[in-house]
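Reopening this ticket.

The earlier resolution said the output was attached, but the attachment link was broken on my side. Pasting everything inline this time so it's all in one place.
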Amino acid sequence: MKRNLLAGLLLFLSIGLIAQKKEFIAVGLNSEMKSDGVMRQGVVFSFEKQLSKHSGFEVGFSQRSADQYIDVLIGTNTYQTFHVLENYLTMPFLYKFHSDIVNVSTGLSVDYFVGWKDITKFGETEVTSYNTNPIFYMGWVLKLSKTFPLSNKLFLEPEIKFNPILKYNFSYYAVSLSLKYAL
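Inline output:
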């Protein structure tokens, strides 16, 4: 009897918890700068699951670029500086605290090197191959955002982000604006 009562109570509570769960997909524009680079724009995609009124998680992916300047010996005592743009796929895995004032997200980010482009504006020589070591970077993310409802299903969420890359001496700073849709 006690088991049935306990099972019924747990079922009742779990239905209430499921009713509070919300899911969102989002697409946004991102303006991001590496601590020693220039501001670069990109697109952000994310999925968010709100597990309770104040707690949830967020995963996503975006494209990130980083400038590298490389001095290469091209002759006897002659160097040329090349400007290479590294491209990464960034995947954050975040815990998100929701409130009426501000949302706070924190967690890990993984950057995966997907390619490069020589954007040197001068010189007679060009870069024909380029690699990074490592091809994965891990970082920590802190985001502050505010959700503004546009309708029952559509939301606007501006955010600011700080993303230091662990073990390496650089960080990313970003502002973005996402359009969220409630599933």
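Reporter confirms the inline version is readable. The longest strand covers residues 55-75. The first helix runs from residue 2 to 20.
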